[in-house]
Amino acid sequence: MRPTPELPKRLTDLTPVVIVGTSLWAVATVVLFLVTDGLWVQTSLSGLVLGFIGLAIIAWQRAAARRGSKGAQRL
User: Fold this and answer.
1) I need a surface site. Which of 6, 13, 28, 63 has the fewest CB within 10 A?
2) In this structure, are residues 62 and 73 in contact, taking their beta carbons and an 8 Å threshold?
3) How far is Cα 67 from Cα 8, in angstroms, rounded to an integer?
């Protein structure tokens, strides 16, 4: 049985996806802040904050992989 080939880096890297999603939430926050207030602005702010948390988690995982942590995900 042949070993499974590695996936290309562009298919496994989550950073571009999280950056695009966070950018869309940022645009939505600005537009909704100018148009309305209340629940929709809070929802878009929550999406923006979660996007930044996602970026922090990706950076944390990469740092753990660089230092050779045993439980780190290798990307």
Assistant:
1) 6
2) no
3) 23
pTM above 0.70, yes or no: yes
CA angle 61, 62, 67 (to 5 degrees): 100
Average pLDDT over the chain reads: 89
Q: How many residues does the chain have?
A: 75
Total Cβ atoms within 10 A of residue 22: 19
Long-range contacts of 62-66 (CB under 8 A, 24+ apart): none
Question: pLDDT tens, 10-41?
Answer: 888 889 999 999 999 999 999 999 999 889 99
- 8 A C-beta contact, residue 20 and residue 51: no
